[in-house]
Amino acid sequence: MQRIIYDEGIKKLEEFAKENKKILGFPIIPDQKLGTALWVSNREIRIKYIISVEKIKKFFEGLFEGKIYATKCLSCNELYFPPQTECGKCRMENVEWVELSGEGELITFTKIFVKPYSFSHYEDYIIGIAKLKEGINVTAWIEEKDIQKIKIGSKVRLKVTKRLPEEYLTYVITIIE
Amino acid sequence: MERKVGIIGVAYSKFGVRNDVNFNELAYESFKEAINSSNIDLKDISFLIVSNVGVWSSEPLPAVSLGEYLGLIGIGTLRVEAACASGSAAIKIAYDMIKSGEHEVIAVIGIEKMNESTTPIVVEMIGRAGNYFWEFENFGLTFPGYYALYATAYMNKYGAKEEDLCEVAIKNHYYGARNPKAHFQKEVTLEECMNSRYVAWPLKLYDCSPISDGSATVILASEDFIRKSGVKEPIWIRSIGASNDTSNLSKRENFLSLKATVEAADKAYKKANIDKDKLTKIFDVIEVHDCFTIAEILACEDLGLFKRGEGYKIIREKQTYIGGMIPVNLSGGLKAKGHPLGATGISMLVELVKQLKYEVEKQRQADIKNGLALAHNVGGTGHYAYVTILSR
User: Do the Cβ atoms of A111 and B20 come within 8 Å?
Assistant: First the structure.
């Protein structure tokens, strides 16, 4: 797991700084390659965003029922995914929630090997973009783990799934053929 | 009132892991050299624009921090963010400010100190440079991941192979090895590139630009100031074209082209009266945004240099080296010169000004016939695009 390697790197850095505080009086360590002096900051913050989903609550209610919703502007018929309740084109807040078929085909994909810190507890994951029959695209993880079995043009279906270990509902692309 | 805007001072610092200097000192490295090359006085500068993405570096108000350190206070300043295109965005603001007649001389400094944070954090923060909620929060996209989505689609459509992507890295490392300020100053072989590990399939480590520190400075001045102060051989900004595209990649029409580049280029060509059918004959040298190897291929096609689907073949035939159809990224590009985000767009102009004046190292000097050069700078994954045309 990449998380272990990442955490070990940070731990080493902090231990080195702590040791040098005792010896030098400061958290100053030499750069590994250049030998130049580096101050390891004593301050650290944790960032966790708290984001309003009030206007798109219906999307999450849909996921809870196993459905994936988009919004559709009632004046220009534009379909929005990710869903939004205001139509930028019409400057109107006049949308209806429509359930997506979830059926479509894969238009591109990648496999993430070098992961962000907050995703480093997962195994390598495959991300795809599917074009649904309604004409909109959806980005999501692909359930299939073997990249060799995935092709552009593969028929796919979206499925509501529980993401572990966080245990929250999301959606995933499944390969049908 | 429209007036011409010229470039009268340029420099960029050594790019790389710059753990030998702090944020302000790194900026000073290019600022000092640019001021010295311009023959102007600090008091001639009436505004300071700082291009910096930040997040991974410690100074939260970079423009203020630099203002104090460089001795530029009491004039007015701001910080510009347009992801990896911040530098070009900063240039555009300065250009418009001078063109309008409000200012005569503006200093534009781009800086990024990415190595003040650890690599996993940088990977995290740059991965968020798309749509946070619908792409990052749930699916953990990374910056190489976004471009990999384009690479997969391009390779599938046009038959390009991973070897073809490596050709871009080989060329850019070849020129990087001849640029003493480049992050990587060593050539790479096809074998080394092909054997490097996957970062985001089908992109490998050698397909990716590095996490760099660096700064770049450009001093812009009005035609009036240039004439009065007797600046010799200024380089003129002929035009700047800009565009933007959707935050969510899922909203893009296809993954074969960055639409924002096409639009930005069209605007720049139109304003400068450039014949789009003769681009490779018109421009003497071009710098494109090769944050990943696939990005250089897309850029060459989106700028209209080559036909769709032909870019990788022309690059494979070494037509983007000196002596080929059109030399591209003789600085080493983002790939080898390095990619300190806020400094990148500005360093492209520094490069091109020096190319147009025959001031770069001999082995990577283009033949200047028409005295025209183009810089292409992308922010995010085609989220922002700027095309700047320079002339002697």
Answer: no
Q: Give strand pairing partners of A79.
A: A72
Q: CB distance from B362 to chain A under 8 Å?
A: no
- B139 shares contact with chain A (CB less than 8 Å): yes
> Looking at the partner chain, which of B19, B127, B250 has a beta carbon nearest the beta carbon of A31?
B19
How far is the C-alpha of B262 from the C-alpha of B259, rounded, in Å? 5
Cβ pair B80, B89 in contact under 8 A = yes
Q: Does B253 touch chain A (CB under 8 A)?
A: no
* CA–CA min distance B188, chain A (Å): 21
Task: Report all structural domains of chain B as residue ranges with CATH numbers, in order of start.
Answer: 5-117+211-229 (3.40.47.10)
Residues of A in contact with B118 (CB under 8 A): 6, 9-10, 13
Q: Cβ separation of B250 and A136 shorter than 8 Å? A: yes
Range(s) of the domain holding residue A128: 54-175
Pairwise CA distance, residues B171 & B347, whole Å: 19
A112 with B121: Cβ contact below 8 A: no
Neighbours of B32 (CB within 10 A): 14
As a whole number of angstroms, the distance between CA B80 and CA B283 comes to 29
Within B39-181, where are the H helices? Answer: 62-70, 86-99, 119-127, 138-139, 143-158, 162-176
The H-or-E segment that residue B298 falls in is: helix B293-302
Measured CA to CA, the distance from residue A72 to residue B78 in angstroms comes to 40
For residues B19 and A50, give the distance between their C-alpha atoms in angstroms, rounded to a whole number: 34
pLDDT digits (tens, 9 = 90+) for B228-259: 998 888 999 999 999 999 999 999 999 999 99
Mean pLDDT of B147-172: 98
Q: pLDDT per residue over B64-107, tens digit each?
A: 999 999 999 999 999 999 999 999 999 999 999 999 999 999 99
Confirm whether A64 is domain-assigned.
Answer: yes
A-B CB pairs within 8 A amount to 116
**77-136 in chain A: CB under 8 A from chain B:** 81-82, 107-120, 122, 125, 127, 129, 136
Residue B123: strand, helix, or coil = helix
Smallest CA–CA separation between B369 and chain A, in Å? 42
What is this model's ipTM? 0.96
Mean pLDDT over each residue of chain A, to the nearest integer: 96
Subunit contact A140:B139, Cβ cutoff 8 A: yes
The β-bridge relationship of strands B5-12 and B213-222 is: antiparallel
- Tokens coding A26: 């400061």
Cα gap B351→B7, rounded to integer Å: 12
Contacts of B173 (CB under 8 A, 6+ apart): B184, B186, B187, B188, B332, B335, B336
The total of structural domains in chain A comes to 1
Residue A16 falls inside a structural domain: no
Across the interface, whether the CB atoms of A38 and B58 are under 8 A apart is answered no
Catalytic residues of B: 84, 339
Is residue A17 included in any domain, yes or no? Answer: no
Assess if residue A18 is contained within a domain: no
Taking CB atoms and an 8 Å cutoff, what residues of chain A touch B207?
none
